[in-house]
C-alpha cells in the first residue's frame, strides 16, 4: 500500500450525486478524488488513466454496469479495489458483484462519512457488504437460470422477436424458444415477458 491519500474514482451517471459525493469526500484529509465518470466506458478510461486505489461505481450506468466495470478492472488494474453503490439493489446483484471481486456493496442511502469509512476499509483489503442487502440475498437464493437462459431472456425483455434474439445470440429460433420456455418454467411465469420481469426483479438479469 502506498503512502499518501487514498486515490478515488467516482462513477455515477447522476451528475448531482457524483458532484456532491466528490465535494464531501474532498473534505477528508486522507481521500483524494482523482477522477469522475458518468458511464461504464468512461469509468474504465478514467481508471486506466489515473490508476485509482479505489473505484466507487454506481450499479446502473450507461454503456456498462458497475459489475461489468469491476470485472474489467479486476483484470486490468488488480491493485484497484472496487465498490458498488446502488439505489436499485436486487439480491442477484450482490452475488454477481462478489463473483466479480467487488469489495464493497452498499446502498446510496449511506452518509458521506460512512462512505469514507467504507472506502478506507476496502482499501485496507477488507470487505464491506450492507447487512440488509446481504440478508435479502441469502433469503432469495441463487438464480435457477443458466447463463444462456438469462441471455435470451434479457434480449426478450427488450421486446426483440424470436428471429432477432436468435440472430443476436447466434442460436436457432427453435433453440431460443426452448431456452425461453425453460426459463419461464423455472421462474413460474406464463410467458417470456413475465419471466423477464420476474427475473429482473430478483436480480437474476
Instruction: Kindly state the number of beta strands.
Output: 6
The radius of gyration is 19 Å
Q: How would you name the CATH homologous superfamily of the largest domain? A: Response regulator
CATH architecture of the largest domain: 3-Layer(aba) Sandwich
- The best one-word shape is elongated
Q: Segments where pLDDT lies below 50 for 5+ residues?
A: none
Total of DSSP H or I helical runs spanning 4+ residues: 10
Assigned CATH class of the largest domain: Alpha Beta
How far do the termini sit from each other? 36 Å
Tell me about this structure.
This protein has 205 residues and is α/β, with parallel strands linked by helices. It folds into two domains: 6-140, 3-Layer(aba) Sandwich (Rossmann fold); 147-201, Winged helix-like DNA-binding domain superfamily/Winged helix DNA-binding domain (Arc Repressor Mutant, subunit A), CATH 1.10.10. It is 53% helix and 15% strand. It has helices spanning 15-25, 40-50, 66-76, 91-99, 112-123, 131-140, 147-157, 162-169, 173-187, 192-201; strands at 6-11, 31-37, 54-58, 81-86, 104-107, 128-129. A six-stranded parallel β-sheet has the order 2-1-3-4-5-6, sandwiched between helices. The protein is elongated and about 60 Å long. The two termini are 36 Å apart. The mean pLDDT is 89.
Amino acid at each position: 500500500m502506498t503512502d499518501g491519500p487514498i486515490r478515488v474514482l467516482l462513477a455515477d451517471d447522476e451528475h448531482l450525486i457524483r458532484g456532491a459525493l466528490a465535494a464531501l469526500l474532498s473534505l477528508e484529509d486522507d481521500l483524494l478524488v482523482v477522477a469522475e465518470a458518468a458511464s461504464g466506458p468512461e469509468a474504465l478510461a478514467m481508471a486506466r488513466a489515473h490508476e485509482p486505489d479505489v473505484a466507487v461505481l454506481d450499479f446502473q450506468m450507461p454503456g456498462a454496469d458497475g459489475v461489468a466495470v469491476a470485472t474489467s478492472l479486476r483484470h486490468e488494474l488488480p491493485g484497484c479495489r472496487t465498490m458498488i453503490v446502488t439505489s436499485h439493489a436486487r439480491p442477484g446483484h450482490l452475488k454477481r458483484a462478489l463473483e466479480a471481486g467487488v469489495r464493497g456493496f452498499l446502498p446510496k442511502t449511506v452518509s458521506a462519512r460512512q462512505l469514507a469509512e467504507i472506502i478506507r476499509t476496502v482499501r485496507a483489503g477488507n470487505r464491506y457488504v450492507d447487512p440488509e442487502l446481504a440478508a435479502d440475498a441469502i433469503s432469495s437464493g441463487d438464480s435457477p437460470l443458466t447463463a444462456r437462459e438469462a441471455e435470451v431472456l434479457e434480449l426478450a425483455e427488450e421486446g426483440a422477436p424470436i428471429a432477432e434474439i436468435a440472430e443476436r445470440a447466434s442460436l436457432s429460433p427453435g433453440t431460443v424458444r426452448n431456452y425461453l420456455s425453460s426459463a419461464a418454467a423455472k421462474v413460474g411465469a406464463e410467458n417470456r415477458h413475465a419471466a423477464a420481469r420476474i427475473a429482473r426483479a430478483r436480480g437474476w438479469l
